[in-house]
Write a structure and sequence with these properties.
Distance between the termini: 31 Å
Number of domains: 3
Bound molecules: calcium ion
Radius of gyration: 24 Å
Number of strands: 10
Order of helices and strands: HHEEEEEEEEEEHH
CATH class of the largest domain: Mainly Beta
CATH superfamily of the largest domain: Immunoglobulins
Largest sheet: 5 strands, antiparallel
């Protein structure tokens, strides 16, 4: 499925390029026809910002965003005959929001985890695979119109969840790989905040003892 999506994105990108090249080279000799002018090939404006955070227990992630500025119902005339007062229909440039997810470590594929309609500003992703190990994700939200034109995706900050104290690489196990990360941060003025296990603003022996207490813990056993 994700392969198909990637293919679709690639095709859309190529289509966009084709339209661009066509416009620059053929603009002089080609007159835009009525039907072409009526075709909606403009993507909606992207969302304003995307947030993502783990929910209690680490089994789902809530993704939220601010609406595209194009997400609004407008009245448009159904005909060009205004003499009778005309009839109108309600349209919204935004048809849906696509919510994408990828693993922060670069493994796996970019995939749509959900789709919601216009006016909706959040989605709970309960499809994360907790046995997968990695606990770090990025989410992206794109905006799609009725014709299928898709906006640029807007990405969240990395979302992390440390289900095990001391599991600094988020792989669900506390082992020597985590110690390596701890060691690089030990006593440093600038350190990865996750390694300051007691949250006192420095990475020192107290943090080491907390870490050592959890050595060998495994989320999946
Ligand atoms: Ca459009
Ligand atoms: Ca680990
Ligand atoms: Ca500390």
């Amino acid at each position: 499925m994700s392969k198909g999506i990637k293919g679709a994105i690639a095709s859309l990108a190529l289509l966009g390029l084709g339209v661009f090249l066509g416009a620059s080279s053929a603009a002089a000799q080609v007159t835009v026809s009525e039907s072409a002018a009526d075709t909606d090939d403009l993507a909606p404006s992207p969302v304003g910002g995307v947030q993502a955070e783990f929910n209690e227990g680490g089994r789902s992630i809530t993704v939220s965003w601010s609406l595209s500025v194009d997400d609004a119902v407008r009245q448009v005339p159904t005909s060009s005959d205004f003499t009778t007062g005309g009839t109108f229909k309600e349209v919204n440039e935004v048809e849906q929001y696509n919510i994408w997810r990828r693993l922060a470590d670069g493994s796996g594929t970019l995939a749509i985890v959900g789709t919601v309609g216009a006016g909706v500003t959040s989605l709970v992703d309960a499809s994360i695979n907790v046995s997968q190990g990695s606990r770090r994700y990025f989410y992206m939200v794109s905006v799609v119109d009725e014709t299928g034109n898709e906006s640029a995706p807007i990405e969240s900050a990395e979302v992390r969840n440390m289900l095990l104290l001391g599991d600094f690489d988020y792989n669900g196990k506390v082992n020597l790989l985590d110690y390596g990360i701890f060691q690089r941060n030990f006593g440093q003025a600038e350190f990865d905040p996750v390694t300051d296990l007691d949250g006192n603003g420095m990475v020192d022996l107290d943090d080491f003892f907390l870490w050592a207490d959890n050595l060998g813990a495994n989320l999946y056993e």
